[in-house]
Design brief:
The complex is a heterodimer of chains A (399) and B (241).
Chain A (H helix, E strand, L loop, with lengths): L19 H4 L11 H27 L5 H19 L8 H22 L3 H29 L4 H4 L33 H24 L6 H22 L8 H22 L3 H29 L21 H11 L2 E4 L2 E4 L3 H4 L1 H10 L5 H5 L25
Antiparallel strand pairs in A: 1-2
Chain B lengths: L20 H13 L8 H14 L18 H38 L8 H24 L9 H18 L5 H28 L3 H32 L3
Classes of the chains: A mainly alpha (399), B mainly alpha (241).
């Protein structure tokens, strides 16, 4: 579907209204809705959260004239985020929601890595992908071994549950987490949309883990969330460093609105639940309204033509389907890559090229690694490892 | 882990009005001096909730049943769907039950066996039976043509209801008495669950399943007796009566 974002003006900002009842609709079904409906909800919640986060940061640093326009759009984004996030049902436990977050990080990042036109950026996405892929495995082990529940009831067979780049070696010094940014004057618009999407998504994952980690009673669960939240913080550092720091705040805001249109449009195209599809359709129109509102600000405050930075039409959306084959190929080829500065190297060269990361990792892991402990000897099994009789109570097992 | 050397100053429980009578008096005075901003009472909340309840969105449904024999009555299919839903619930419960007893074993092992209270061997005995019951239900679902990896609506709801028990058992700060109190909730529910399954197996004419489940219920009745008795002994002992 091609959408001319200059011609389609969407719903004017002043006509975007809500009621509390509208914000809190019946949630989706954990059991009956497709896993990709949940993936889209978690992703779009993350993008809206980032819209609000970025808007606040800009409001604190820009001149006073921008504060009211930022506040007006931010109010609508707040309610969009609410309507989207509240579609998650109450029977989806925090750990199950975590599995959903990791599925977003796997399948959405895989689609982005496949479509990314810039080879360096694609490599960065593949690098991050293998780390989130490993998180899925660690959290699944936690779910199995503490709750006695099967993560595949959330994943619905679309994504593999197996080790990736082991979380224990993902810990890096900040010097090895920064990447080279795209050049805003020459980058493909899709590269900008990708970088914003993944940064936003990972930032929300980090914030979610930091919120729910202390809700667990089990000390291993608390440690695992502490450990993986730390990696998510590294991922936010990595992905946000892809964004060109030479873009003005208003240019970034403009691109963020374009990114939201792009993603709501993709959600709308792929959605299988008609009730949720209506929400995506409505928010495509709302985001077009925001985009045009910010285009006017861009002209007014920067005397620049939005066409300098925005594409006429939006690229193909994120592909909401299983990327099993691509992920496996990436795993086989790149699991042993490590970061060294803004580049990547084989693990055998890490000690020479990234000594700060080695020292940092050794310190963090010096009293044990939660991600290794929780998954010691773990292989995901349909219906949990108990179906194979693996328990402290199995014959021959000792306490 | 290295000790930080810091010592927590224990001042005791700070909840309740008696902790600080002067502040409590001011608090009551403040609350009573204000008027509610809206009229009415609890019925307002009930009315609001009713709107959502009557929308009729379910938690979820059972998967499509295996293709039925031609001419098979819908009634039988409905009965089978209920049976599979409740079997899936028991499966989830026994699976979590195994993990709960693993956590209890972990705690008992760490704290050392206490008298009164269960021994490690007592817990291992129950844990082994929970695991056996899980495997029994798993096998039963397969034998009657269901998929044991399905999470049915009742299994999902049982998981939600049991989360609090799990939190108690996996909290390193909870005492053996706290854990036994939580396990009593689990065992009471478990016993009722097996009784219901036996009735369903009987009514749906699965005599072999019924017989196997009756043996499982005998184990569960013993679990309940044990947990109830350990809890009672622990509480009475701590009260020194």
């Amino acid at each position: 579907m091609t959408l001319d974002i200059f011609k389609e003006k969407g719903t004017p900002l002043d006509s975007q209204r809500f009621t509390w009842r509208e914000l809190v609709q019946a949630p989706t079904s954990k059991l009956d809705d497709d896993a990709f409906t949940r993936v889209r909800i978690i992703l779009m919640n993350g993008l809206e959260a980032n819209a609000i986060r970025t808007s606040h940061a800009v409001a604190r640093m820009m001149n006073g004239d921008m504060r009211l326009p930022l506040a007006k759009v931010r109010r609508v984004e707040q309610h969009q985020q609410t309507m989207v996030n509240w579609l998650l049902p109450a029977d989806l436990s925090p750990l199950e929601t975590t599995i959903g977050f990791e599925q977003v990080a796997i399948e959405v990042t895989a689609s982005v890595a496949l479509r990314e036109p810039d080879e360096y950026l694609a490599q960065v996405y593949r690098f991050g992908l293998l780390e989130d892929f490993d998180h899925m495995y660690r959290f699944s082990a936690l779910m199995d071994r503490v709750m006695g529940a099967d993560a595949n009831n959330i994943v619905q067979n679309y994504s593999d549950i197996m080790p990736g780049r082991p979380t224990v070696v993902e810990h890096r010094a900040p010097e090895d987490d920064l990447r080279e940014h795209y050049d805003s004057t020459t980058a493909d618009p899709l590269s900008k949309l990708h970088a914003l999407t993944i940064t936003a998504s990972e930032n929300q994952t980090h914030d979610y883990y930091m919120t729910i980690g202390p809700m667990f009673a089990d000390p291993i669960a608390r440690q695992l969330y502490a450990e993986i939240a730390s990696i998510e913080e590294q991922h936010v550092t990595q992905y946000e460093s892809l964004l060109d720091p030479n873009e003005t705040p208003l240019e970034k805001w403009l691109m963020h609105e374009a990114m939201e249109v792009y993603n709501y449009l993709g959600c709308m195209q792929y959605e299988t639940n008609p009730r949720i599809k209506e929400i995506w359709e409505r928010f495509v129109d709302y985001e077009l309204g925001h985009l045009h509102y910010v285009m006017e600000l861009f002209k007014q405050f920067e005397n620049r033509d939005p066409a300098e930075v925005l594409p006429q039409t939006l690229p193909e959306p994120i592909d909401y389907q299983s990327h099993r084959q691509f992920v496996r190929e990436t795993l086989n080829a790149e699991v042993d890559l490590r970061a060294a500065g803004t580049q990547f190297t084989h693990k055998d060269d890490e000690a020479d090229r990234a000594p700060l990361s080695i020292a940092y990792r050794e310190q963090m892991n010096s009293e044990g690694s939660p991600s290794e402990i929780v998954a010691a000897g773990y292989t995901w099994t349909p219906g949990t490892e108990l179906a194979e009789g693996k328990s402290a109570f199995a014959k021959g097992a000792s306490a | 882990m290295k000790s930080t050397g810091a010592k927590q100053v224990m001042t005791g429980n700070r909840t309740g009005m008696q902790t600080s009578p002067e502040l409590a008096e001011e608090l009551i005075e403040g609350a009573n001096s204000a008027m509610p901003s809206s009229e009415g009472g609890l019925e307002e909340m009930a009315e609001y909730r009713e709107e959502y309840i009557t929308e009729g969105f379910p938690i979820g449904s059972m998967p499509m049943m295996p293709a039925s024999e031609e001419g098979e009555a819908d009634e039988e299919e409905a009965g089978m769907a209920v049976f599979l839903d409740k079997l899936s619930e028991r499966l989830a419960f026994e699976r979590m039950g195994t993990r709960l007893y693993e956590a209890l074993l972990n705690k008992c092992d760490a704290l050392g066996e206490q008298s009164p209270g269960p021994t490690l061997e007592d817990i291992e005995q129950i844990g082994r039976e929970e695991l056996e019951h899980f495997l029994l239900v798993n096998r039963t679902i397969e034998e009657i043509g269901g998929d044991p990896t399905v999470q049915s609506p009742s299994a999902d709801v049982a998981g939600v209801a049991s989360l609090g028990i799990l939190q108690v058992l996996t909290d390193p700060r909870s005492s053996m008495t706290h854990c036994l109190q939580a396990m009593l909730m689990a065992e009471l529910t478990d016993n009722a669950g097996w009784e219901l399954l036996i009735k369903l197996a009987d009514n749906l004419d699965y005599p072999d399943v019924k017989a196997e489940f009756e043996v499982a219920l005998e184990h569960e009745e013993q679990h309940l007796l044990n947990v109830r008795s350990w809890l009672s002994e622990c509480v009475l002992d701590s009260a020194e009566v």
